[in-house]
Amino acid sequence: MRILVTNDDGINAPGLAVLERIAAEIAGEGGEVWCVAPAFEQSGVAHCISYTHPTMIAELAPRRFAAEGSPADCVLAGIFDVLGGEKPDLVLSGVNRGNNSAENAVYSGTLGGAMEAALHGIPAIALSQYLGAGTKDLDDPFEAAAVHGADVVRKLLAADQWRLGEEGGYTTFYNVNFPPCAASDVAGTRAAIQGRRPGDGFGMDASVSPGGRRFLWVRGARQDVDSGPETDATLNRENYITVTPMRADLTAHDAVEPLSAALK
Length: 264
Description:
Blueprint: E1 2-6, H1 14-27, E2 32-38, E3 57-61, E4 64-67, H2 71-82, E5 90-97, H3 104-107, H4 109-119, E6 124-129, H5 143-159, E7 173-178, E8 188-191, E9 203-208, E10 214-219, H6 232-237, E11 240-246, H7 253-263
Parallel strand pairs: 1-2, 1-5, 2-4, 5-6, 6-7, 8-11
Antiparallel strand pairs: 3-4, 7-11, 9-10
Helix pairs in contact: 1-5, 2-4
């Protein structure tokens, strides 16, 4: 099996090293793991692509490349440059430092990489490690992902449910979040829908530099709250690994029929 890995935390991120080990286990003897990851951190860029400027790419080691672009850029670079147009069998994105549950999924560059792969019909999985009180004193905060990651990927490969929905529609990809606990405390793996934490989410705080210039900083939302019954963040906080099937289709399908009636 040929696997392409990427992330949004950057080529030197510890979570990427965890993902490379997971990928090597899945690829098996005789398989190939190729890495194309951002040269610098790209957290929060979602499905951004560098449409108006070129992306520099450099080979750091055999099958390991850094690109000055987003995770989606890296997937494109992997497919069309590094692999010479030959699609990999699987794309893995992560392991993100922090959860991509609930509304975080909308902003996630980790998911952006997996989504780009899915748009090319390639099976793709985004993996993220929820951090919290249960991980702060661990020697390895990515422990849950490192221990359970390969098993989750194997189950998704065995299920082989990538092209669900309408024929010719969007390929499904998967958002996996590992709970904020030690690997031994993981309660199991659950399919979950994307939740929404209460409140307004991200905000802005202003500050003034010593030179008198005004800057705005994005302020994160609370992560230690639930996101609704049986949803991803809630189940993660109950020590479950969650797997959420996703597609690039942004249509609010339940709104189409009432909208049609309103427009008559």
